[in-house]
Fold:
Amino acid sequence: MSRFAKYFAHGTLAVAMLLGLGACDTKPPLATSPGVALVQQAAASGRPTIAEFGAKTCASCREMKVILDKVAQRSAGEANVLIIDISEDWQASQEYGIQMMPTQVFFDVNGKEIARHIGKLSEAEVLEGLAAGRVR
Structure:
């Protein structure tokens, strides 16, 4: 089982239990920060999305940016790849419950969070996470 699959298997249940995903018919909160607006827009696009929350001052975040830039080029038009700098948009980190950097949050084609990961991921793991988000 890949590293992503382990996080996906364990993280999805925990996130669903903690946030009550799927059990709530309310609309998402109105965006109050650029990062929140960007994530909401991408999640509503009908494409799988990865949003990474980090900062320019974080070495692991800078390494992930290189990987995410490659993924964005490979999946242009097929998936959304977002990088949110929480040092410039603290409200986005609060809205999405980010406690450590970097944190990657994966959303499926319906805009539902399906997994999250703290730390670095390989390009293959990011692509695997986006592929999991394509399943309807």
Q: What stands out?
A: The mean pLDDT is 83.
